[in-house]
Design goal:
It is a single chain. The chain is an alpha/beta fold and 309 residues long. It has 2 domains: 119 residues, 3-Layer(aba) Sandwich (Rossmann fold), CATH 3.40.50.720; 172 residues, Lactate dehydrogenase/glycoside hydrolase, family 4, C-terminal (L-2-Hydroxyisocaproate Dehydrogenase, Chain A, domain 2, Alpha-Beta Complex). The chain contains 10 helices and 13 strands. The strands form 5 sheets. It has a 3-stranded parallel beta sheet with strand order 3-4-5. The chain has a 3-stranded antiparallel beta sheet with strand order 6-9-10. The protein has a 3-stranded antiparallel beta sheet with strand order 11-12-13. Helix 3 runs parallel beside helix 4, helix 3 packs across helix 10 and helix 5 packs across helix 8. The longest helix has 25 residues. It is globular, with a radius of gyration of 19 Å. The protein binds nicotinamide-adenine-dinucleotide. Nicotinamide-adenine-dinucleotide (NAD) binds next to loops. Nicotinamide-adenine-dinucleotide binds next to loops. It catalyses: (S)-malate + NAD(+) = oxaloacetate + NADH + H(+). Its EC number is 1.1.1.37. Keywords: NAD, Oxidoreductase, Tricarboxylic acid cycle.
């Protein structure tokens, strides 16, 4: 997708650096062969390596997919412990060798906490440059509304994913709208079923990752890759006017969320920078859910630190 221009646009040549562990070196080389064979006009060079320094050297964008993936029935605690040490090591390689203004997107789970570890162990990378992926959850929420209302997904906008990329995330439609032939209408008004929006919709989005793992016995792949392209494209090239997206970013205390956590907020992007959408009205129901997912992130943070000892 990156080599076809889905991430940075059809006019932006790219050099792909791909990192994997020694045990996967042969498979990595196979991916490199496929990339060569695809003859992508935008792909100017490929570096396929098991050396983290070579992989991080001068990169402008780092997409952190590597890690120990969640398997069916796996406890989040095991996942945290296996992944934080990887992110601590990769943080220092990025800090030392990546381009100065490198933008980082962490995808591997636990995504928010891996990003937090990366931020804490790469203190010279600006906090604003370290993000994690909740765009997949955002896109899932848009898709659920689109299916329910039988409208095209591109006509739905401004859902919000608050918090952790986990089952405590809060998919919020209170500010979401649909473009119709008679103007922009609120999702709540059009769905006209608060019970569905406050129960089934939320659970479906929260559990969608697990549902995909149940069905495929592997994490989402195509939709995750596409969401990663959406995340980086909007961050680098900007969000459309009047539209916000969800990104896991460090909290500056907005909406009462503990500063320093990597928490998913509604953001707009311009000139390569994101800003949290301010001033949205938060009702009691939302407040409880936003706080619950923040509490989980605080707990994950201390779990991550205990695994590093
Ligand atoms: N945030 C999201 O929305 C989202 C969506 C889908 C998947 N994920 C997560 O993304 C990650 C990747 O998922 P996947 O299905 O591609 O998993 P996968 O197991 O197929 O791939 C992980 C890759 O990472 C490599 N790897 C392991 N340790 C590494 C290290 N130390 N350095 C570099 N590479 C290393 C593995 O060899 C493997 O090639 C998982 O953690 C998954 O849970 C997140």
């Amino acid at each position: 997708m990156i080599a076809r221009g889905a991430m940075l646009g059809p006019d932006q040549p790219v050099i792909l650096h791909m990192l994997d562990i020694e045990a996967a070196a042969e498979a990595l080389n196979g991916v490199k062969m496929e990339l060569i064979d695809a003859a992508f006009p935008l792909l100017k060079d490929i570096v396929a390596t098991t050396d983290v320094v070579e992989a991080c050297m001068d990169v402008d964008i780092a997409i952190m997919v590597g890690g120990f993936g969640r398997k069916e029935g796996m406890e989040r605690k095991d996942l945290v412990s296996r992944n934080v040490s990887i992110y601590k090591a990769q943080a220092s390689a990025l800090e030392k060798h990546a381009a100065q203004d490198c933008k980082v997107l962490v995808i591997a789970n636990p995504a928010n906490t891996n990003a937090l570890i990366l931020k804490e162990f790469a203190p010279s990378i600006p906090e604003k440059n370290i993000t994690c992926l909740t765009r997949l959850d955002h896109n899932r929420a848009l898709a659920q509304i689109s299916e329910r209302l039988d409208v095209h997904v591109s006509d739905v906008k401004n859902v919000i994913i608050w918090g952790n990329h986990s089952s405590t995330q809060y998919p919020d439609v209170n500010h979401a709208t649909v473009t119709t032939s008679y103007g922009e209408k609120s999702v709540r008004e059009l769905v006209a079923d608060d019970h569905w929006l406050d129960m089934e919709f939320i659970t479906t989005v929260q559990q969608r990752g697990a549902a995909i793992i149940n069905a495929r016995k592997q994490s989402s792949a195509l939709s995750a890759a596409s969401a990663a392209c959406d995340h980086m494209r909007d961050w680098v090239l900007g969000t459309p006017k009047g539209t916000w997206v969800s990104m896991g970013v460090y909290s500056d205390g907005s909406y009462g969320i503990q500063p320093g956590l990597i928490y998913s907020f509604p953001v707009t992007c311009a000139n390569g920078k994101w800003s949290i959408v301010q001033g949205l009205k938060i009702d009691k129901f939302s407040r409880v859910k936003m706080d619950a997912t923040a509490t989980e992130l605080v707990e994950e943070k201390s779990l991550a630190y205990s695994c590093l000892d």
